[in-house]
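Weekly puzzle thread! Below is a chain. First person to post its structure in token form gets bragging rights.
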Amino acid sequence: MNAASFIVIAAVVVLTASVLLVGLAVAARRLLGLQLGVVRTVLAGLVGSAAFLVFGLSILQPLYQQPGQPPLMLTTVQLGIALLVAMGFLVLAEAVLP
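Winning reply:
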């Protein structure tokens, strides 16, 4: 792999992670109907992204080891769980520090 392809891949990974983080935070905020600051929104996105990663590593990783088609249908479940965790974080943060 040359340097140009490495830079392109790194940029795509950063862009995708940023879209996931902002998307989770904004979706959770809009579903709850809360007006929040930037710090709490970013923290909700980070918590949701962490849940997305943990679910992916714990549940989906053994399924990818099996031969055949990867289980992409569980990706929607993974996104839903991440969204619920981000919403739970926002509710808890709003209850503790209004």
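Puzzle host: Confirmed. Bonus trivia for everyone else. The chain has a mean pLDDT of 84.
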